[in-house]
Amino acid sequence: MSKALNILKEVFGYPAFRGQQAEVIAHLADGGDCLVMMPTGGGKSLCYQIPALLRDGVAVVVSPLIALMQNQVAALHEIGVRAAVLNSSLSSQEAAVVERKLLASEYDLLYVAPERLLTSRFLNLITRIPIALFAIDEAHCVSQWGHDFRPEYSQLSVLHERFPKVPRIALTATADMDTRKEIIERLGLDVARVFVSSFDRPNIRYQVIDKTNSRVQLLAFIQAEHRGDAGIVYCLSRKKVEETTAWLIEKGIRAVAYHAGMSMQARSLNQERFLREEGIIMVATIAFGMGIDKPDVRFVAHLDLPRSIEGYYQETGRAGRDGQAANAWMVYGLGDVIQQRRMIEESEAEFKFKQVATKKLEAMLSLCETTTCRRSHLLSYFGEVSDVTACGNCDVCLNPPQVWDATVEVQKALSCVYRTGQNFGAGHLIDVLRGNLTVRVKEWNHDKVSTFGIGKDLQERTWRAVFRQMVALGLLTTDSEGHGSLNLTAASRVVLKGQQTVYLRLQAKLNRLSEKRQDDDLAMMDSTERYLWEQLRTWRAKTAKEYGVPAYVIFHDTTLRELVRLCPQTEDELRLVTGIGMRKLDKYGNHLIEILRNS
Ligand code: ADP
Ligand code: ZN
């Protein structure tokens, strides 16, 4: 193991292993199979990259995303590791060169797309050389239930059949038990050791905010907390992606779009910009994001409610991979609940599927409506028991919502639904309750029903929150014809009869959250530190451009921050900085020292 630690220090420039890395590496280097479940940013890549250097032969890494393999390989070249990609982005001549070098044992790691790996040509090719290991990245792609399902992944068991002696490592950031079982089954990993890390991401701050006008709220959030930062904004529909992007650009924000309806070319262009330039905001549907290994995404925003906690966690997990402070921010309102329920009802899927979808949506809603710590709620959803019941870094912990006894108001609302014939949506019902004489109210004679005006004491906004929570709690349901009208349920009758008390949350004012974060050392820098930071960033951008790689491939923000904090003046001092290994010290050491001495 001392050899592994040496590689970590000299090649990667890190002082110590994180979490279970050391154990995984020892097991794999020793020839054992394993399944590694670690959250995004947990450091999965090192788990196979170091064994690749320790063992004889080439490590074959299966990865589903072409553009991102390229960046991984670029980062490996930067630290002097011999690696290459083999996928459809190469011309046949280029591929021939890679194959020739492969046979000449000139690589430590080879990244391959699954469809390429499965060709008999490739499988025959690799029988001719020693293989160090097989790494199957994003292993949850075997799962037919997940939205990342890749049919080729289910054929990867062929590796074990053809190369029974070569150890395999499967890696995923998906945490749930069903996926875990499916990976083990489909990849034939029943004797593999399973390494499960904590899925907590302490540097991510979770916030769920009452939706009023999502675009305006988003802009205010970006301006208050994320000027010049890279971030991802998720929307449900392609149309909303386009509208939001256009609107942000109009407001002077550097935003690009990504959804499955765009041409391949436009998509990869925008993805490249997001990865390579600094401070770009990617507005996207969930088609975007798998395998994105950009470490400095400072926030992930959801403008629409995700379908499940699994999806939400995976998407928000793309923030703050570098371990620095990051935000997972979501706006959520009545419309979201109604829309998601309707989408399930209207879908043509089988009953079983709808049942699963409903269960997942309900879990998601309960996360949104929770009055206790969101982090502990999330972790317990993934079966993680922790003693921490208040993390101190989510909106609920920072600003606990008030809970109020809303039984009477809920009864009024339910009775209004009943009196108006279970035929109307929340907007109209609120008008009736608040005694607004709208055209529609007059048209239906709803100023004559007994519930007209009985809810004047609550603001429209509060009523919307009440209705939202009633739908989320199952006290109201949407009709199956999809008109958005609200109907009573069995549960509502219990409340109407006065047999149950209903507590709802009162949206807290979020002023305290916009204060400077103590864990955000960038926000805490003084002016000279700030100056040095900008100098280093400028140098990094220039260098990245010169080599045609993303800035983070040169150095991560984490490294730059440490440079600012420690201000090393000699090569020996530089060596101690995280992310500076032998190769980078050789290549950039002089430039860094020059900048550091002059500021
Ligand atoms: P994952 O694939 O699990 O999402 P990565 O392998 O991309 O995560 O690692 C996340 C980040 O953490 C990377 O920037 C990586 O260089 C860094 N990292 C990984 N292991 C260590 C370590 N032992 N010490 C310091 N940084 C690490
Ligand atoms: Zn919390």
Explained architecture:
- The protein is an alpha/beta fold and 599 residues long.
- It contains 27 helices and 17 strands.
- The strands form four sheets. Strands 3-4-2-5-6-1-7 form a seven-stranded parallel beta sheet, with helices on both faces. Strands 8-13-12-9-11-10 form a six-stranded parallel beta sheet, with helices on both faces. Strands 14-17 form a two-stranded antiparallel ribbon.
- Helix 14 (334-346) packs parallel to helix 21 (460-472) and helix 18 crosses helix 19.
- It is globular, with a radius of gyration of 27 Å.
- The protein starts with a helix and ends with a helix.
- Mean pLDDT is 90; it is low at 509-515.
- The protein binds adenosine-5'-diphosphate and zinc ion.
- Zinc ion binds at residues 373-375, 390-391, 394, 396-397.
